Amino acid sequence: MRRLLNLAHHGLHRLAATGPARPAHRAQHAPDGHAPDGHGPDRPGHGRRGPGTGRPDGDDGGMSVTGEQYDRFAGRMLAGLHRRAASEAADLPDGAAVLDIGTGPGRLLLHLAARRPGLHAHGVDVSPAMVERARHNAAAHGLAAHITVHLGEAARLPFDDDTLDLVVSTLSVHHWPDVPAAAREIARVLRPGGRLVVYDFRGVADTRPTGALAACPAFAGARVERRTLSGGPTLPLPLFARLALELPRR
Ligand SMILES: C[S@@+](CC[C@H](N)C(=O)[O-])C[C@H]1O[C@@H](n2cnc3c(N)ncnc32)[C@H](O)[C@@H]1O
Hints:
Layout: H1 2-15, H2 23-28, H3 67-77, H4 79-86, E1 97-101, H5 107-115, E2 120-125, H6 128-140, E3 147-151, E4 164-170, H7 179-189, E5 190-201, H8 209-214, E6 223-229, E7 240-246
Parallel strand pairs: 1-2, 1-4, 2-3, 4-5
Antiparallel strand pairs: 5-7, 6-7
S-adenosylmethionine (SAM) binds next to strand 2.
């Protein structure tokens, strides 16, 4: 069973085009411009490097597939996970603000806005191609009025202090190059009593991103919940870890 789970972890990890968060390593996984579907580097949605990215080095967020390819995968395989993550906002009042960090093609935002149109749903991603894809998806689903997607990086969020009620993130934390800096930034933008809920791979080799987040001093005093869960009907294996942190009320 453990062997089967490890195989599933690695397969999914590759499919989701994840890679260690070190920039030097990421360069080896840069898009080669020849996607299997024949889309070249100039096609919209391709995760190519270039000016105007969320990081000074024009980083692509560690993704080695095009925005369109990843979007097809996420729409089919990760729907259960995204639905589950969107349900984290169920108890928020209308008018509350939610942020999805590393939103990719914004599938979680679509679930969120469809279910709770009274919320302000924001997404941030370091990849311009993903931001473009997420905006395209919001418009294509008639949800553009409820969703705002920003180009940005987890450790430098484009929000004022104490402005968000909930921060969520799915399958992105293992890419973040500086988890403690991101933790400080998330704690800065969350209101007192706000929540961070992160879903990521449960344990691919040495990747234990949710554990690293929970250990950050920025979350000292937070109420912590950890859980293992499956990807729902589309991925019924215990592949994911859920970490929920609730900041103390000041
Ligand atoms: C595997 S995808 C997950 C996308 C989406 N959350 C999902 O569940 O389908 C990881 C995403 O995280 C983004 N990302 C990587 N590092 C980031 C960072 N430091 N700040 C913001 N986004 C980042 C990547 O560009 C990519 O879109």
